[in-house]
Design brief:
It is a single chain. Helices cover 53% and strands 7% of the residues. With 334 residues, the chain is mainly alpha-helical. It has two domains: 205 residues, Rossmann fold; 89 residues, Tyrosyl-Transfer RNA Synthetase (Orthogonal Bundle). The strands form two sheets. Strands 1-2-3 form a three-stranded parallel sheet. The protein has a two-stranded parallel ribbon with strand order 4-5. α3 packs across α12 and α4 packs across α7. The radius of gyration is 21 Å and the shape is globular. The protein starts with 6 loop residues before the first strand and ends in a 7-residue tail after the last helix. The mean pLDDT is 92.
Length: 334
């Protein structure tokens, strides 16, 4: 608990460009949490370097992501929005937790196996210990709740195991985080491969609608969306392309699948794709306009980076000092 509210922690990596699935599946839902929880939303730039990055591009994308958090509706006065790399306690606690995490536990992490297969020329130690840094991210803030997707459940389970192990040795040090199960958000699939999720790292740019795509690009991508040959707009698992477009239209208009089927009962795929594109353009326009305005106000964004970074460091260091004392590190002279 922090200031009478439960603590909720989440973040996104500062690589790639945020796409529609990130917004509808996560970011949009975060905005609804700020009144009920003390939220820490991190720009996860330390995790990003397990894969080689262009330094200038990484800095640019980190700032763009932080700005986009705000443009999408997160209030930097109510939420702590900060860069992971600006809070050294993340790295310091990660090292300590490495010494309380077993090799066998890390060997079982499926994401490590997947990433190692994709980046076989750069299988580094950071890729292997990535879940320990993630545990440090969460435990630093005495986090009560963590929104998790199916691909992160295993990491949260490890975080809980390590925290419980540490607490069993040293007493009540860490809050044991619970998964936050949000109301069902839109699960947005690739426009080119509707059997897999839309991804900001998809090599096929036509598969994703990026939040900063201009209207012409959005229309073009929806026109090229993979569907099927029968031209019937029906919400069904055997029509994954059309089902995905209906999900997107529903998220943008708040209409149900049944209402959408009825609305387009006499329409073909071409008309429906254009209608989906128009609703997405309408939904993203205020975010894009706010992002453009914020990007021009360097002093304001710099103040958010400084003030929120200091706030995150304050709470993180309270936990870190407690942990350092428990493990026997000499007290720092201040």
């Amino acid at each position: 608990m922090l200031d009478g509210k439960k603590v909720l922690y989440s973040g996104m990596q500062s690589t790639g460009t945020l796409q529609l699935g990130n917004y509808l599946g996560a970011l949009k839902n975060w905005i609804e949490l700020e009144e009920d929880y003390q939220c820490f939303f991190c720009v996860v730039d330390m995790h990003s370097i397990t894969v080689r990055q262009d330094p200038a591009e990484l800095r640019k994308k980190a700032r763009a992501l932080l700005t986009l958090y705000i443009a999408a509706g997160l209030d930097p006065e109510k939420n702590c929005i900060y860069y992971q790399s600006h809070v050294p306690a993340h790295a310091e606690l990660s090292w300590i937790l490495n010494c309380y995490t077993y090799m066998g536990e890390l060997n079982r992490m499926t994401q490590y196996k997947d990433k190692a297969a994709k980046h076989s020329s750069n299988i580094n130690a950071g890729l292997f210990t990535y879940p320990v840094l993630m545990a440090a991210d969460i435990l630093l803030f005495q986090t009560d709740l963590v929104p998790v997707g199916s691909d992160q459940k295993q990491h949260l389970e490890l975080t809980r195991d390590v925290a419980e192990r540490f607490n069993s040795i040293y007493g009540d040090v860490f809050t044991i985080p619970e998964p936050y199960i949000a109301k069902a958000g839109a699960r947005i699939m690739s426009l080119q491969e509707p059997s897999k999720k839309m991804s900001k790292s998809d090599e096929n740019v036509n598969g994703s609608i990026y939040l900063m795509d201009d209207p012409d690009t959005i229309v073009r991508k929806f026109k090229r969306a993979v569907t099927d040959s029968d031209n019937e707009i029906r919400y069904s698992d055997d029509k994954p392309g059309i089902k995905n477009l209906i999900d997107i239209y529903a998220a943008a208009t708040k209409k149900t699948a049944s209402e959408i089927e009825a609305e387009f009962a006499s329409s073909g795929y071409g008309d429906f794709k254009l209608a989906v594109a128009e609703e997405v353009i309408k939904m993203l326009r205020p975010i894009q306009e706010r992002f453009a305005d914020l990007s021009k106000d360097k002093a304001y964004i710099d103040s958010i980076i400084k003030n929120n970074g200091e706030k995150a460091a304050y709470y993180a260091n309270k936990t870190l000092r407690k942990v350092q004392k428990k493990v026997g590190f000499p007290e720092r002279i201040r």
